[in-house]
Amino acid sequence: MSVQGETREKTRINIREPKHYKVIMHNDDFTPMEFVVEILIDIFRKDLLEAERLMMAVHETGRAAVGAYSYDIAVTKVHAASGRARQEGFPFRMTVEEA
């Protein structure tokens, strides 16, 4: 039953997935492989086998995507890894790219 003068409103809700960003590790000749594996385990939460596989991919190809995250999480992980590398005196470089 409809009341005269009543207006109905349809609400459309569009929920979009947040964009994902890839964290890219770049190879250099100074950062030890063991340090890269530690970063992958401690900051990126990879298991040992995955961390070693990713480290070798970076070493052999010059770069590799090590994860895809929301922008804030990707940048936070890069800052944490870069800060740790600076503390150790390594020129370790990582970038964030839109996935």
Secondary-structure map with pairings?
Layout: E1 21-26, H1 33-42, H2 48-61, E2 63-69, H3 71-88, E3 93-98
Antiparallel strand pairs: 1-2, 1-3
Helix pairs in contact: 1-2
In words, what does this structure look like?
With 99 residues, this protein is α+β, with helices and mostly antiparallel strands. Helix content is 42%, strand content 19%. The chain has a 3-stranded antiparallel β-sheet. The longest helix has 18 residues, at 71-88. The protein starts with 20 loop residues before the first strand and ends with a strand. The mean pLDDT is 93.
What topology, given as strand order, has the largest sheet?
Answer: 2-1-3
Global outline: elongated
Structural class: alpha+beta
Helix percent reads 40-55%
Gyration radius, to the nearest Å?
22 Å
- End-to-end separation: 51 Å
Number of helices: 3
Task: Please tell me the overall pLDDT.
Answer: 93
Care to count the β-strands? 3
Along the chain, the helix and strand elements come as EHHEHE
Strand content: 15-25%
Largest sheet, strands/sense/barrel: 3 strands, antiparallel
**Stretches where pLDDT falls below 50 for ≥5 residues?**
none
